[in-house]
Amino acid sequence: MSDIIQLLPDSVANQIAAGEVIQRPASAVKELLENSIDADSTQIQLIIKDAGRTLIQVIDNGKGMSPTDARMSFERHATSKLKNTDDLFNIRTKGFRGEALASIAAVAQVEMKTMRPNDEIGTKIIIEGSEVKLQEPCQTSKGTSISVKNLFFNVPARRNFLKSNQVEFRHIMEEFQRVALVHPEVSFEVFHNDQLQLSLERGNFKQRIIGIMGNNYNERLVPVEEQTEIVKISGFVCKPEFAKKTRGEQFLFVNHRFIKSNYLHHAIQHAFEDLIPHDSHASYFLQLEVNPASIDVNIHPTKTEIKFEDEKAIYAILRTAVKQSLGKYQIAPTLDFETENTFTLPYNYEQNEVVIPKIKVNPNYNPFERELPLSFKGSPVPKDKNLKHWDKLFPSQSDFENIRNAEQEEQISITHQQETEAKQESRICFQLHRTYIITQIKSGMMIIDQQLAHERILFEQFCRSLALHKSASQQLLFPQTVELTPNDTLLLNDILDDLKNLGFEISPFGNNTFVINGIPPGASEQECKNLLEEILERYRLNTDELKFNRQQQLALALAKNIGTKRGKPLNNEEMNALIDLLFACENPNYTASGKPIIQIISLEDLEKKFQR
Predict the structure, then answer these.
(1) pLDDT band at residue 389, thresholds of 50, 70 and 90?
(2) How many other CB atoms sit within 10 Å of the CB of residue 39?
(3) Are 176 and 25 in contact (CB under 8 A)?
(4) By C-alpha distance, which of 366, 543, 552 is closest to 455?
(5) 449 pairs with which residues across the strands?
(6) CB atoms < 10 A from the CB of 456, how many?
C-alpha cells in the first residue's frame, strides 16, 4: 500500500494561512500598517479604493529593505524579529510570525517598491497568488510602498462573502484607528477613492485622541496615571456624563498593541459603578505597559487576545487607578468619615447669636363679627355682604328645563359608555406583575408578554413603512444635535435613507455631527439622542445575523427601543388594543428573533394541578 501523507504545496499552505490572517481588506490594512510601524516610520499614507477590493496601498518612510530581504519577506515564517525560542517571550514589535506578506501575496496581486536610506536604487517585486512575476531594480523614494490589488482575485468564494463598500471601509477605519491612536509620534493620511478622509499630525497621546475623535473630546478626557512593579497605566477615560449607549470607544493597549479583554473591560466598567446607567458604556483610551515575559501574545492569529501571567492583580490595579482618577478630578463623589456633616454650620453663621423667633397674634380678632376689626396697618377691612341679586339663588322654570335636558344628555352618555364597556367585558383580561397580560379563552387562558407583543407589532409596522418608503414623523420643537465617533458616522451615513423611511429626519452638520429634526411617532423627544445611539448599537450587533436584511435589522432595532417595556401599567382598554393589534400581525406567536410571545394553559392542565 502506497504512502498517503504528503507535504502541501506552498501555494496551498499560503492560502490556508491567509484564511486565518487575511479575513477581509481590513486585515490586510492592519498587517501592512504594523509592518510600517516596525520599520520605524514617521510618515505613513494609506490609500484605499473600493473599500480595499481594488487597491490597498501603504507608503512609509521607514528603513526599507535590501533586494534579498525584499524577496525573503514574502516567504512563509520569514521574519527579522525572532532568532530563537527565547525571543517569543520578549516580543516588543507588532509582527513576529512572518506570515503577513506571504498570506497577502497568496490571495492578491502585490507590488512592492522599497529602498534603504543609504541605497541609491531600490527594488521592485510583483507577486500574484504566491508566484513571483517580476523582481528588478527600480527608482523609488526611501522607505517602502506596498500595493495590494484585486484582493481575493483567485478565491472568488471569499470575495463573494465581503460586505458592502460602506461596511468594509468601516472595518478598515476601525483597524486604522487602533494603530494610529497608540502611535502619536507617527503622522498619518488616509485616502479613499482619491479623497482625503483623515490627516493626523504628530503629537502626544491626547492630541491624537482629539485628532481622531473630534475637538469636543478635549473637555471630556480625564487623565489616568499609575505605576507599579506589575504594570504601568497611562491614558484617559471620559467623564461619566459622556457615557454612550453604543460601544466602539473602548481602546485598551498592552505594550502598544490593541487588545480585546472582557475581563479588563469589566474592571474599568466597575470603576464607573453608580456613575453611569447599567446599559451605558464608558469611553476610555488606556495604555498598559508590562514585562513582555509576563504575557503571551501568540494565542490568536490576529494577536488581539493576550494571556497575562497575573491577570487578577492587573484587574485590581486598573480598577483602582480609574476610580482614583475619577475621584481626584472630582468626577466621583468622595466621603469624609471623620466629619459629621449633619451638625456642621456654614461659616457665615458660626459667630451669630441665636435669636428666638417672635410670633405676632391679634388678640382682637373675632371670627363671628360681621365686619373684620382693624387690620394690622390700622385701616378697617369691610366685609362684602353680597346682598345683590339674591333672587338668582332660586332657579326659574326655564332653569329646571335646562337642568332636565343636561341630565338626559348625561344619561345617554352613560348608557353609551356602558354599552362600550359591555363589549369589552366579552374579553376579560388583567395584568400580572406589570409584565404579562392574561385573558380568558375557550380552552383555558392565554398569557401574553406585553413587551414582546409590542415589539412584534412595531416590527411589522416599520417593515411596511420601509417597503412603502414613507412613514409619519414627529417634528421636534427644538432640533437636537448629536456627535458620533468616526465609525458611527460611517455607519449612520450608510443607513440614513432607511432611517428617513422609519420617521427620522436627520441631516449632517459636519465634523461627525448630525441634527435630529424629527423622530418616529411614539418615540420620546427627551431621549432621541439615546434612541439614535441605541439603534446604531443594535444594528451593529445584529449585522452578522444572516436571516435579516439591513432594513429588517433597523426595524427590529427601533422596535426594541420604543416598544412598551416590562413594568409599565396598562389599563383594560390598552390591553385589549394590544391584543387586537397582535393578532392582526402575520405571525403573532413569535418575535422576529424567534422568542415566543404567547403561552396557553388549558383547563385540563389547570385541573391536573388540583388533583391529588
Answers:
(1) low
(2) 17
(3) no
(4) 552
(5) 436
(6) 26
The amino acid present at 527, given as its one-letter code, is E
C-alpha distances out from residue 175 to 31, 171, 257, Å? 10, 6, 12
For 249, which DSSP code? Answer: -
Query: CATH for 216-328?
Result: 3.30.230.10
Domain 216-328 in the same topology as domain 10-203: no
Q: What is the pLDDT of residues 179-192, one digit of tens each?
A: 999 999 999 999 99
CATH of domain 10-203: 3.30.565.10
In angstroms and rounded to an integer, the radius of gyration of the C-alpha atoms of the chain is: 36
Measured between alpha carbons, how far is 91 from 446 in angstroms, rounded to an integer?
63
**How far is residue 127's CA from residue 129's CA, in Å, rounded to a whole number?**
7
140 vs 467, more confident: 140
DSSP 427: S
Residue among 109, 88, 113, 86 nearest 98 (CA)? 88
> According to DSSP H, which parts of 98-229 are helical?
100-106, 156-160, 165-181, 205-213
Distance from C-alpha of 282 to C-alpha of 24, rounded to nearest angstrom: 29
As beta bridge partners, residue 238 has 221
Strands annotated E in 355-449 = 429-432, 436-441, 444-449
* Chain position carrying cell 490595579: 317
Note whether 10 and 129 are within 8 A (CB). Answer: no
Distances (CA, A) of 176 to 181, 182, 250, 256: 8, 11, 15, 14
Cα–Cα distance for residue pair 329/222, rounded to 1 Å: 8
- Long-range residue pairs from 348-354, CB within 8 A, at least 24 positions apart, any chain: none
Whose cell is 429588517? That residue is: 552
Distances in Å between the alpha carbon of 147 and those of 125, 182, 313, 526, 603?
11, 24, 44, 49, 72
Mean predicted lDDT score pLDDT of the chain: 82
Predicted confidence (pLDDT) per residue in 311-326, tens digit: 899 999 999 999 999 9
Q: How far apart are CA 102 and CA 74, in angstroms?
A: 5
Superfamily of domain 441-599: MutL, C-terminal domain, regulatory subdomain (3.30.1370.100)
Q: What's residue 164's pLDDT?
A: 84
Find the DSSP H helices in 45-164: 67-72, 100-106, 156-160
Q: Closest by alpha carbon to 561, among 468, 490, 462?
A: 462
- Cell 416590527 sits on residue: 459
457: cell is: 407589532
| Domain assignments of the chain as residue spans, ordered by start | 10-203, 216-328, 441-599
Q: Is 514 helix (H, G, I), strand (E, B) or coil?
A: strand
From CA 72, how far away is CA 234, in angstroms rounded? 38
